[in-house]
Amino acid sequence: MSQTTIEIKHVPALRLAVVRGRAPEIDSAEISPVIQHGFATLGQAMADHRDLVVGPPVAYYEDLPDGAGLECCAGLPVRADAELPDGVEALDLPAVERMATYLHVGAMDSISAAYQELGTGIAQAGDRPDNTSREVYIDCDAPDQAQWITEIQMPLVDR
């Protein structure tokens, strides 16, 4: 179950410690194993560096040119001055003045429907997203994924 409204808000700049991967298609069956592997690798690399982390996990996605798939970044927000361990790189996401957000409550296997709702709402409002999206895993610790809370974010391009 997800919220029924889209919120447009300012999102501040964010530095992420990331592990990158690529999904050959923009399809949850292709994306899920890539991002799960990324978070597992990131968790291992950052195990002794938890003091650098300043927020909940974030997945960052960017369409690759010519329909070549999707870049998938498993990330943890870190301090700006953080020295990252080997195998982890910094990704600086800019502030976004107009970020369309949608709160998804439930299992990740149902998040595609939330993306569709967000995309439809953006189009109905006469807006257009850029070629990136983010998932902020606000509360994804419960054993029952039906209780997980994920904020989907899509930057809007100027009209």
UniProtKB/TrEMBL annotation:
SMART domains, sorted: AraC_E_bind
Highest taxon, organism lineage: Bacteria
InterPro entries in the cross-refs: AraC_E-bd, GyrI-like, Reg_factor_effector_dom_sf
Annotated ranges, domain AraC effector-binding: 4-157
Pfam families: GyrI-like
Name of the protein this chain belongs to: AraC effector-binding domain-containing protein
